Amino acid sequence: MSETTSYSRRNFLKTGGLLSGGLVLSFFIPAGAKRFVPDADPLSNAFQPNAYLNILPDNTVQVILAHVEMGQGIWTTLPMLIAEELDCDWSKVTVQHAPPGKPYLHTAFGLQITGGSSTTYSEFDRYRNAGATARAMLVEAGAKKLGVSPASCRTENGYVIAGDKRASYGQLANAAAALPVPQKVQLKDKANWKLIGKEKNRLDGKAKSDGSAIFGLDVHFPGMLIAVVAHGPVFGAKVRSFDASAAKAVKGVRDIVQIPTGVAVVADHFWAAKQARDLLQIQWNLGPGEAIDSNSLLEDYRRLANEKGLVAEQTGNAAQALAGNVTSIQAEYTFPYLAHAPMEPLNCTVKISDDHCEIWTGTQLPGGDQQAAAKLLGLPAEKVKVNTTFLGGAFGRRASPTADFVLEAVEIARASGKFIKMVWTREDDMRSGYYRAAFLHKVHVGLGANGFPAAWQHSIVGQSIMNQYTLFGPPDKSKPDESSVEGIKDSAYLADVPDKLIQLQSPELPVPVLWWRSVGNTHTGYVMETMIDELAFAAGKDPVAYRNSLLKSKRHLAALNLAAEKAGWGKPLPAGHYHGVAVHESFRSYVAQVAEISIQNGQLRVHKVTCAIDCGLAVNPDGVKSQMEGCVIFALTAFLYGEISLEKGRVKQRNFHDYKMVRMNEAPAIEVHIVDSNEQMGGAGEPGVPPVAPAIANAIFAATGKRVRQLPLQPSDLVKA
Amino acid sequence: MEKQKYSRRFFLGTSSMAAALALVPSGIKAFYQDLKTRLLPVKSIQTLSLIVNKKTYTVKADTRTTLLDLLREELELTGTKKGCDHGQCGACTVHVNGERVLSCLTLAAMVQHQPVTTIEGLAEGDQLHPMQQAFIECDGFQCGYCTPGQIMSAVACVNEGHTHSVEEIKEFMSGNLCRCGAYNGIVESIQKVAR
């Protein structure tokens, strides 16, 4: 990791005038950018305050986030990186989301996106450099003002200090802004860190606890109207005709318009809009979406699993190895569609004037939404302003490659000519698609004489995300979608298996699918970790010892053995309690979990989950712990209850009564340990999800002798074999 | 026993009843709809008088407007959140007469002249309520969307005296969903205030 970075003058843009004085630093650092963004890119012409930080005359340090806050804590973590190098007063730090703009493109992905558990590691250098560069300029300005040499100055808590003289950053901001930007800055040695690696309370805590935090659904302007949409009953349905006469009679209704995704009601307030929507008489052309049925889908997938698919990985000849006289295990796993179900239902506020459009929404893809809206309206991108609010949960749903919910609101605003806030009810949110895809795995594993896997044949069937969208480039359907096979193709367990074949079938269906917290690892991690457990049992080995023999990576082992030690693996448990273990690498982090369960009166109780993560440096250990806790609850919900099912193309689930969430009374105790690690930094938002369900399933096996291979958990899974 | 009125199971019960009704044959559904229109106040715009956070508001509103929609859309008090609109998630929890109430299942007209407290009214001036402070210190939130409802429920949970054990706290907080899974921090926050 380079400790110095150079900046070109060209990349340094000043917008100080906009802020009535003050130092505004911004620079575009192309380091690591994989997707070339030419200067002619429409983003470069967009309105850009273009900065990572501003220092105001009153010493306030405004940090501008290239990524968005959706619960994962970067509202605090990224400012910590700047403040560490800047030596500013932490109590004077304020934070805001960046608008779409070139300086805010993801350093690795080349577009403005929050996802892939990548924010902290991808911004680690950029935000520290932003702070260090500002500090260097303030020191130079301070030295001049105090009449000393820069070398004799130190910085502390928002002041440049030389002996008994001092000047605040606020006093120096304007002078600093006039200085040339240093070509190179020195970053602090790790030994001198005051903030990085320390536990910090969150900077969004006050606003989120006093009700002042503004989420998309809270956006409110005088004259703004509320819009709700009647979506088709099945995916891909189109309006054939509709009768709005009864709906129009509802007091408060201002307009009813047809849009590509259905019919929208625009009204003075939500109640009127919803009442009117219920009175709409709509005839639909249902299209092929009506044919989708969860049960028949499973049969189709089962058939596909036996056909030749795209080869994700192949060595030796697995079929031949398994045809011989070997001990083998065959298993089929099924996973349903899952909804993201963030607590804040999707929404978007749009105001269109003659040649300008302004959008307010909680989005993981502000730049993509801007460009999609601009294209729809025939406007240049800089004429579309996107204001990113706080996100009331997202889990991947608010990174929509089709900008679906944003474009729907833009369509309503355009068709009605009104300033609208489009709101989805919980039912709309649950039934309008973009799910974790349903998957089926068929696995056949041959055991060698040593009890370790010698042959591995694996067929995976499920819709592709990457083949549907062009976000990261044109889809290539001749290659397996990496996001469908991640966690198996690159599994550390399979590295030394001589004969293996991993195949993928990606059927194309009208049900929209999307990344869902930890993406492919949600199912691949489950299959690998329960199958390895099954193999350990077949080999007569302890599950932790078996994994220790198979795994060569010290990071896997560090997490695994720390979790096992802290959970008291192998030590006596209370009567009727059982342990299960799992370890999985995803998003560059290694997470192991030990679940302690009991089954009483046919009910599963998860008492405790002990978690260990090796994510390299944990910038804010508090944040990493919170993410691990969140991952456990999120994954437990999916394991116990998560299922979106379709009947004649219609989604059966509606609200939290039939798409249940783990409630506080069902929540296990969660203990999180962070491996003291100097390895490459990894993510925290997602990698805690994959091991949870297999650890619990393995504990259920310990209790019942039964393997859970169909999710979500069924009551019959808890009856002893 | 008055407090039992607002227990989680009561609401789960009623809202799954409503859900079950959504599945019954259309003849019965029509009857239910008919019944609902008869039982609910007649469709009319009336002047409502509400006391929210010690301030009196007089607004003209449809008498069937929920307290939640009225708070958010008419009074612009958007701290109270809408998560499900069916009494399932608790994000809309406010206090009426000092007791927790799901504002999505309460008609604004029903709570006229009774003191309503929302998250915006919990602090005393600049001084945060101890529960708000505890949520910040114990990481009792992640995305923050369910947080106002969690805090209003947590304050009531302490006032009701349901804080004798972690299990008791969890039971009496189980009407408030947190999709991000900040449950550990929420329990800690409540323990901190209850001590």
TrEMBL record, chain A:
Signal peptide: none annotated. It comes from the Bacteria. Coiled coil: none annotated. GO terms for molecular function: oxidoreductase activity. Pfam families: MoCoBD_1, MoCoBD_2. InterPro entries: Ald_Oxase/Xan_DH_a/b, AldOxase/xan_DH_MoCoBD1, AldOxase/xan_DH_MoCoBD2, AldOxase/xan_DH_Mopterin-bd_sf, N-heterocyclic_Hydroxylase, OxRdtase_Mopterin-bd_su_IorB, TAT_signal. Residues 210-288 form the Aldehyde oxidase/xanthine dehydrogenase a/b hammerhead domain. PROSITE patterns: TAT (PS51318). This is Isoquinoline 1-oxidoreductase, beta subunit. It comes from Filimonas lacunae.
TrEMBL record, chain B:
InterPro entries: 2Fe-2S-bd, 2Fe-2S-bd_dom_sf, 2Fe-2S_ferredoxin-like_sf, 2Fe-2S_ferredoxin-type, 2Fe2S_fd_BS, Aldehyde_Oxdr_Iron-Sulfur, Beta-grasp_dom_sf, TAT_signal. It comes from the Bacteria. This is Xanthine dehydrogenase YagT iron-sulfur-binding subunit. GO terms for molecular function: 2 iron, 2 sulfur cluster binding; metal ion binding; oxidoreductase activity, acting on the aldehyde or oxo group of donors. Residues 46-122 form the 2Fe-2S ferredoxin-type domain. Signal peptide: none annotated. Keywords: 2Fe-2S, Iron, Iron-sulfur, Metal-binding, Oxidoreductase.
